[in-house]
Amino acid sequence: MIKKIDKDHARFRHIIRGQIRKELRKYVSSGEFIGRQGKRYVSIPIPRINIPHFRYGKNLKSGVGQGEGEPGTPIAPGEPGQEPGAGDMPGEHLLEVDVTLEELARILGEELELPRIKPKGKRLMPSEKTRYTGISRSGPESLRHFKRTYKEALKRQMASGLYQMDNPTIIPIREDKRYRSWRVKEVPQTNAVCIYMMDVSGSMGDEQKEIVRIESFWIDTWLRSQYKKLECRYIVHDAVAREVDYDTFYHVKESGGTKISSAFGLCNAMIRTDYDPYEWNIYPFHFSDGDNWGSEDTKHCMELLEKELLPASNVFCYGQVRSAYGSGQFKKDLDEHFTDEERLITSEIRDREGIYDSIRDFLKKGR
Questions:
Q1: Long-range contacts made by residues 41-45, C-beta under 8 angstroms, separation at least 24?
Q2: Contacts of 221 (CB under 8 A, 6+ apart)
Q3: Helix (H, G, I), strand (E, B), or coil: what is residue 363?
Q4: Sorting pLDDT into bands at 50, 70 and 90, what band is 2?
Q5: Residue 31: exposed, middle, or buried by beta-carbon count in 10 A (0-12, 13-18, 19+)?
Q6: Are 237 and 260 in contact (CB under 8 A)?
Q7: Residue of 280, 17, 243, 241 whose CA lies nearest to 123
Q8: Dihedral sign, CA of 44, 363, 211, 285?
Q9: Higher model confidence: residue 35 or residue 215?
Q10: Cβ count near 333 (within 10 Å)
Q11: Concatenated DSSP letters for 25-42?
């Protein structure tokens, strides 16, 4: 039986999902979720949900209280009138609700029409799955085992002499009831790794870096909904690349020249050392403003992509953030050099509003 409170809660969650859908583009472009992220939940401010309240209006009947009153007689001190005082206009109500990252990923995938990812790989890592394999003396009635309960009741009645051949009625009591029980079984789950690379050179300002971090957060949220266990590695670079942890990636501020091949080389070294392409689903993401040091370094990047990174990756995604100091040339070079390469996806991110469409560009193929 479904309790009324459960129905009300389900209806409330349905309303919340509808409000999130309406404001999804705004939420995606906001950086607040990165700071609010806990283990599984994020807090989302939901506007325009009316909180229950008393509605005051004109009393159509004569009199105030139980006696007759005169027009203009105040009901209670503080009633709004012609004199200065408290306002009588309603304000906007903001309600913060906790939403799981899994639910956010589902909403994001539905709104962007993202396909389910088809994993590759031969070696699999274990994940947990529940199977009903045993019998227990306790449990919910929905899991009661009819045959085992019948047998226990029959044995008890025969042992106690209560069973009658002429009237073979079996009535189970509490001690007779048996229930299906479960055990957790490990089943294979495909390996996946996501390698985020971010240009932190002088031409990448704070706003550009924030855009990269916001988009990386939402990409990570979606991929974790597709893979039960996902490894993430982080690389930052200017003229030199280095691996950093999660917190450093989301808070680092640096400057210097730009040498994109340093990040590509470190990414390639990670894959060679730790991630066999035949056993892992590999997703490298590189973000920059498109300003690279010299044509020779760009040529070296093309060679690394063509010979090493693209053959090893499910997809290689390059996001170019518009910057007042960046030339934006690198995306043009990639598009010209890899005109028919399906495993390379490039996207231009003009501002925060462009994050939403850039995520669709990267993930729409479902590779």
A1: 41/98, 41/99, 41/100, 41/101, 42/98, 42/99, 42/101, 42/104, 43/96, 43/97, 43/98, 43/99, 44/20, 44/96, 44/97, 44/98, 44/99, 45/94, 45/95, 45/96
A2: 101, 104, 105, 108
A3: helix
A4: very low
A5: middle
A6: yes
A7: 280
A8: positive
A9: 215
A10: 16
A11: HHHHT-SHHHHH--SSEE
Three-state DSSP at 108 gives helix
DSSP reduced 3-state for 64: strand
Cα separation, 250 vs 31, in Å, equals 11
Q: Any alpha helices (H) in 277-354, and if so which ranges?
A: 294-304, 310-312, 329-337
For the chain, count helices (H), then strands (E).
Answer: 12, 9
239 dihedral zone (left: phi>0; alpha: psi -120 to 50; beta): alpha
Sign of the Cα torsion 285, 290, 292, 298 reads positive
| pLDDT tens readout for residues 218-252 | 888 888 877 777 889 999 999 899 999 988 888 88
SS percent in the chain: helix, strand, coil, step 5 = 40, 25, 40
CA-CA-CA-CA dihedral for 155, 161, 166, 167, to nearest 10: -70
Tell which residue, 350, 336, 358, has the closest CA to residue 286.
358
How many angstroms separate the CA atoms of 287 and 195, rounded? 11
Cα–Cα distance between 169 and 153 in angstroms, integer?
10
Number of residues assigned to the chain: 367
For the record, the structure tokens of 16 come out as 């919340």
Q: If you average pLDDT over residues 180-192, what whole number do you get?
A: 65
The domains located in the chain, with CATH, are 1-51+93-113 (no CATH), 127-185 (no CATH), 189-363 (3.40.50.410)
